[in-house]
Amino acid sequence: MTSALELSGISKSFDGFRAIAAADLDVRSGEVHALLGENGAGKSSLMNIVAGLYAPDEGTIRVQGRPVRIGGPLDARRLGIGMVHQHYKLVKSFSALENILLANPEGGFARGRATIDTALARLADSIGFTVDLTKPVGALSIAEQQRVEILKMLVGGARLLILDEPTAVLTDMEAERLLAMLRHLASEGAAVILVTHKLGDVMRHADRLTVMRNGKTIATATPGTLNAGELTKLVVGTTTTECAAPAQNVGAPVLSLTSVSSGGNGRRETLSDVTLRICSGEIYGLAGVGGNGQTELAEILMGVATAAAGRIMLEETVNITHAAPKTRRAKGLAVIPADRHSYGLASELSIADNYAIGDVYSGKYGGVLRMKSSVAQSAAGVAVAAHDVQGVRSLAHKAALLSGGNAQKLVIAREFAGAPRVILAHSPSRGLDVRAAAAVHARLRSARDGGAGILLISEDLDEILLLADRIGVMNRGRLVAEFAAPADRQAVGEAMVSHG
Amino acid sequence: MAEPIVALDAAMPAPSRRPGRMTVEIRQTSPAGQKILIRGAGLLIGLAISVAILAWAGVGLGNLANEFVYAIFSDSRSVASVLIQMAPLLIAGLAACVAFRVRFWNIGIEGQMIFGSIAATLVAITDFGPPALRLVVMLMAAALGGMGWIFVPVALKLKLGISEVVSTLLLNYVALNFLLHLLYGSWQDPKSSFPHSEQYDAIERLSPLGWENVTLALPLALLLALLLWWALNISRFGFFTRFVHANPKMAKAIGIPVLGVTCAAALLSGALAGVAGFAISAGIEYRMTQSFFFGYGFSGILIAFLARNNPIGVIIVAFFVAILFVAGQSLQVFYQIPGAIVQLIQAIVVISVAAAEFFIRHRLKWTR
């Protein structure tokens, strides 16, 4: 049987950095093939070469046994290759149908519309998709947008479908449905490449898998022949398994929210009447499907949005409901924001600057009249070393050059520098590989054991169950349930999705 | 679902038979030396295009060298006129620089210059305050005038989210028409009935330094550059502006008073523009004329851009733009080249240097 896609000896360097080194991959028609690896292992880069976004430096690509040169996304499409990127390539203000039409021009606009309409109806029927194609894409949920992307590729005649981290943004249920659909596509003869670092998805749904590490493809196997431990070892090189370590020393409340509501202001996500209390020495895990008020809550706690009602107290005595971020930080609040490059770091500025800004008001790095950049540099150097931030060639380099895990370590180094009393950690391991996530978790635990109270907001239920001493569930802007650890996964999951 | 694979023979021949092609790659980093080289090349290309245009308009290479180098540096009067011209250009460049540091796109430097000059002239013609302090009062009035004129766009932006690009630009025309209203009306020179204000008294002029016609305006401009360098590169305020420039969302979350920093920088920009107007009226023309501001707004933006918003760099760039202004005037007189050539050369240089940025972020590579 000929392979749908065969890559041999593919290499690609970016600015001297070898992202992919002589990678081989063989994907057959009719299979779901998982491509596994840590962040930065080169999975996405390799797939971007197949999709025509990058040109390889070396190596050959064969499609259906024929050597081909993929000079751009258009070539890829002609070869029946379609890729659903991690960040969808959709025009938000266009309807789903228009987006599909845009990617698949068919003669005139009106005729193309009609052609695509019928093709879509047939397609959606055969794979059981339900999406309102007339709605603007921006109004669709993330899962629906993903379906639009998939339809876009299938209408274009894709017989090799690449999905980059498709389940990262989906709930458990949505993910199951997607994976079942991919299986169905494969059974009809298509080839599916699933780029992921979720081992569970791979074990249950992939026919074969290829593991990448440091830009190389190091193994191809069938999931049945490996157990999860062996697979983890292949992916990260060494086995790391984290265990829950419950709190030992829970003290007085350090952060309490009383009936906090957001103004709404016509925004989709609102917060209503949230009351919760976090004590020193514990991790409070706030679980929930994304978009149920977590972002609003985090912004209100950071002080970049204001609560319309309710009261927020630090240490039971300090009312910070209307305090500026500066005051909150001075009183001992530290924040690890969800999006490192939006709230966490000024990516264009140096690593030293990004570190020093956290404690700029103390006068440590010079007074109002004169900043002492050399002092900031050396303090940043010490912190960077203490927190094991890798890839720092110079403290004067832009923070943007750090990889996700190291950027997060830099944020943590800055936020933990002042021995904070309360830590807001919002999706602290999102986008990090197993090892980097474990390092972040260890920092959170040691801060907790040092007496800080931690509010951990995460959409990753595994992370919550692993770390939290108490668990709250957010659903449609409300705190709907609380559990003590160890909590029942099923019960927490139900509270997350129930509509009662 | 059973769409056939597109015929492969038609689509893709084997790789070896293809000719090579140019690909664009993103550079992760660019060493400092390389950046300077690329920007320098952009500058040279811009100048080369300018030379070509001038040559086409009838000014030969030899004549250009004569006008831009020999005529200027061979005689102290010409050097002096460059330095005189440099002072207001430098201050206008500083005005643009401080605003751009917080991403406030102040396109209204000329309008703020007009109101700076109007405020200073008001002090001069009403003989307000003690004579010994008259110049200081005029300077402060000019700063307040410019600041007042930029206050409207600042407030509109912060309160209603109206783009400052549009509001500052359009307020230039309002300022111009108000200036003309004054100069053709109550402030018209009573002695000559020309549309400019009456001449400033001796105590209302920036005094000469004793060398050629260079006045106090130049040391004033240099002092402002130093002060701004301190404010932007040394002080904590300057540190904050870097964060506001790089990521305002993050700056707010980390406790920087983003609103205050932005406001302060924008108002300072207006104040500096006002002082630039004062430097022309009290340092060069000794009265308020109807077109004293012309070209300074764009030049200020250009100077800040080429100096990469660094006040010390502004000093250097302002010097070269001043040469361009002075040489432009003699081209106009001796070769009948329109005065707009100065603007044209500035624009070409800006576009070339801006285009060179592409090569700092990307690399072209020939692949097969």
Helix content percent band of chain B: 55-70%
- The residue-averaged pLDDT of chain A reads 86
- How many structural domains can be distinguished in the coordinates of chain B? 1
Count all strands of chain A and give the number: 20
Proportion in β-strands of chain B: under 5%
Global geometry of chain B: globular
What is the straight-line distance between the termini of chain A? 52 Å
Q: What class do helices, strands and sheet pairing of chain A give? A: alpha/beta
Content of β-strand of chain A: 15-25%
Provide the number of structural domains of chain A.
Answer: 2
**Architecture of chain B, according to CATH?**
Orthogonal Bundle
Q: What coarse outline of chain A follows from CA principal-axis ratios?
A: globular
How would you describe this protein?
The complex is a heterodimer of chains A (500) and B (368). With 500 residues, chain A is of the alpha/beta class. Chain A contains 17 helices and 20 strands. Chain A has helices at residues 43-50, 73-78, 96-103, 109-127, 142-155, 172-187, 199-205, 228-236, 294-302, 325-330, 340-344, 351-356, 373-386, 404-415, 434-449, 461-467, 489-497; strands at 3-14, 17-28, 32-37, 58-63, 66-68, 81-84, 160-164, 191-196, 208-213, 216-221, 253-262, 274-279, 283-287, 307-314, 318-319, 333-336, 422-426, 453-457, 470-475, 478-484. In chain A, the strands form 4 sheets. Chain A has a 6-stranded mixed beta sheet with strand order 6-7-8-3-9-10, with helices on both faces. In chain A, strands 16-17-18-13-19-20 form a 6-stranded mixed beta sheet, with helices on both faces. A 4-stranded antiparallel beta sheet of chain A has the order 2-1-4-5, covered by helices on one side. In chain A, α14 runs parallel beside α15 (434-449). The radius of gyration of chain A is 24 Å and the shape is globular. Chain B is mainly alpha-helical and 368 residues long. Chain B has a single domain, classed as ABC transporter involved in vitamin B12 uptake, BtuC (Orthogonal Bundle). Chain B has helices at 8-11, 32-56, 61-73, 76-100, 109-125, 134-160, 164-183, 217-234, 236-246, 248-253, 258-285, 296-306, 311-335, 340-361, and strands at residues 21-26, 362-367. The longest helix of chain B has 28 residues, at 258-285. Chain B is globular and about 75 Å long. Chain B starts with 7 loop residues before the first helix and ends with a strand. Residues 1-17 of chain B have low confidence and may be disordered. The chains are: A alpha/beta (500), B mainly alpha (368). At the A-B interface, β5, α4, α10 and α11 of A face β1, α9 and α10 of B.
